[in-house]
């Protein structure tokens, strides 16, 4: 948590971090200015750190609610969670590709050191216009992450800078910066007396349900007959088999008797014809 000087303090610390790392690597003096990109061409190596937008942090913006009690008493100091958006541009001799070399050094510096070091914050706080800033004591450290912008967004951003020619640049987001309120919350009243009560534990007793005699199912002995023994099954099958055999044999015996009676009742035509022939011969 920090006061209202936190935004300016982060901008100055970012410019100081870039200056401490880019200058020795580049091999010559590099001027780093925390301001908007210059409208005039710069002959000497120059880097501008421009804060073009401040937005509320979406993940922390409502974590401090509510801050007051029902009677209006302040119970918690409000804190605004912010994200800072920076445009970092490089200038120099175009024939020697100074701007591109500076941008490469800036990207490597912020990739190697994405979190703002405490010693850099303390060094930046020595500026007279940042006296009274407490960003160095903040528990939350500021982290820098690159932001991707397409051609349309880049054109709109540089279009806001009136009469400023485009220069090679990168965009970074700084998160998270807290700005505390000025009021001090009223401390809570101390505990006058603490009461400790011990209640014996009693096991819960389940409730018994009343049985309905109508819906109560009948016992197994009354609803279904007892299974028959193997000897009783064999005794029941024996008369059934005997009766079936007797019924099946009766029509067959009757059919054979009727056929025999028909054969005995038929005359023998051949023998009678022979007898008639013999009788005719004797009569002559």
Automatic annotation (TrEMBL):
Q: Fetch the InterPro entries from UniProt.
A: Pvc16_N
Basic and acidic residues: which segments have biased composition?
Answer: 268-284
Residues of the signal peptide: none
Locate the region Disordered: 202-284
Query: Low complexity bias: where?
Result: 215-261
Q: Which domain of life is it from?
A: Bacteria
The protein's name is: Pvc16 N-terminal domain-containing protein
Q: Which organism is it from?
A: Streptomyces plumbiresistens
- Which classification does the entry list for the species? Bacteria, Bacillati, Actinomycetota, Actinomycetes, Kitasatosporales
């Amino acid at each position: 948590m920090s006061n209202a000087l936190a935004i300016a303090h982060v901008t100055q610390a970012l410019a100081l971090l870039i200056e401490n790392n880019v200058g020795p690597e580049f091999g010559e003096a590099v001027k780093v200015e925390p301001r908007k990109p210059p409208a005039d061409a710069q002959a000497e190596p120059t880097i501008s750190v421009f804060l073009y937008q401040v937005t509320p942090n979406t993940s922390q913006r409502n974590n401090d609610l509510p801050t007051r009690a029902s009677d209006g008493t302040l119970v918690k100091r409000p804190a605004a969670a912010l994200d800072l958006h920076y445009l970092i541009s490089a200038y120099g001799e175009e024939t020697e590709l100074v701007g591109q070399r500076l941008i490469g050094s800036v990207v490597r510096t912020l990739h190697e050191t994405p979190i703002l070091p405490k010693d850099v914050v303390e060094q930046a706080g020595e500026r007279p216009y940042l006296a009274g800033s407490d960003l160095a004591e903040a528990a939350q450290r500021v982290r820098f992450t690159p932001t991707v912008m397409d051609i349309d967004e880049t054109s709109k951003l540089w279009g806001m800078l009136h009469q400023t020619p485009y220069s090679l640049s990168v965009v970074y987001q700084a998160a998270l910066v807290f700005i505390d309120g000025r009021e001090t919350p009223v401390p809570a009243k101390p505990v006058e007396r603490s009461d400790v009560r011990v209640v014996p534990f009693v096991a819960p007793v389940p409730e018994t349900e009343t049985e309905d005699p109508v819906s109560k199912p009948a016992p197994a002995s009354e609803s279904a007959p007892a299974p028959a023994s193997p000897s009783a099954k064999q005794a029941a099958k024996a008369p059934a088999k005997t009766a079936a055999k007797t019924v099946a044999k009766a029509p067959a015996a009757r059919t054979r008797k009727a056929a025999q009676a028909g054969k005995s009742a038929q005359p023998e035509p051949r023998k009678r014809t022979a007898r008639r022939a013999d009788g005719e011969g004797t009569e002559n």
